Amino acid sequence: FPTRRSSDLVDVIADSLEKTFMVESINTAQGVRDTGSAFCVSPTYFITCAHVIRGYNKNEEIGLDYFDSSVISLIYGNQKIEAYLIKADPKLDIALLKSNLDSDPIEIDTSVEIGSDIIAIGSPHGYENNVSTGTVGALGRKVYFYKGAPKYMFVDLSVFPGNSGGPVIRVDNGRVVGMVTLIVADAGGYGLNAALSSSYIIDFCRKNIRGFSLK
């Protein structure tokens, strides 16, 4: 089987890092600060997890006003750039942000197989843009059973709090195939790392970004 040259992997990582950012969300009502990750999907538009903006119970019905007390920023090096929540789908745990941060979009792909080499970029424990490498472990897995719950991709790579909202990227073409969403684990233990598949991301972007298209 052909293998990806290490120099090509470095290029994919370098390109992806320029399009992925740390998210800071401060709940002014409760004084709680959360961090996560986001990536650019269209000029001035960024995708992240809804729970990065404010934590919630997925089994409860919540509206967009639930996030009103959150002050959101994208972190770019030493810069903190204001961002605004445009739309959130709590059932899918996905949110769309708008910001004047200048970034090119990262391409999205729906084609992925079990065993595909991948990277994930996130900000675990607040350390901005850390890269981990691994493989796709499973596709189409059910984790939640509420109405409208998505099926997830399990990814075998290092994921920690702060990775949520970060892209999962195919090594062979540098395109996003998922978004890190949750760790399925017993209390205090390691678990399965679940990512929202790119098909959900594409559909969400098409509904909420005028003129959105895949490159």
Your description of this structure?
The structure is a single chain. This protein has three helices and twelve strands. It is 13% helix and 42% strand. With 215 residues, the protein is mainly β. The model has no long low-confidence stretch (mean pLDDT 90). The strands form two sheets. A six-stranded antiparallel β-barrel has the order 1-2-3-6-5-4. Strands 7-8-9-12-11-10 form a six-stranded antiparallel barrel. The longest helix has 12 residues. The chain is globular, with a radius of gyration of 16 Å.
Portion of residues in beta strands equals 35-45%
Number of strands: 12
| Low-confidence parts | none
Global geometry: globular
Helix content: 10-25%
Distance between the termini: 28 Å
Order of helices and strands: HEEEHEEEEEEEEEH
- In the sheet with the most strands, the strands line up as 1-2-3-6-5-4
Number of helices: 3
* Structural Rg: 16 Å
Let me know the largest β-sheet. Answer: 6 strands, antiparallel, barrel
* Helix/strand class: mainly beta
Q: Mean pLDDT score, rounded?
A: 90
Which key terms come to mind for this protein?
mainly beta, six-stranded antiparallel barrel, 12 strands, 215 residues, globular, six-stranded antiparallel β-barrel
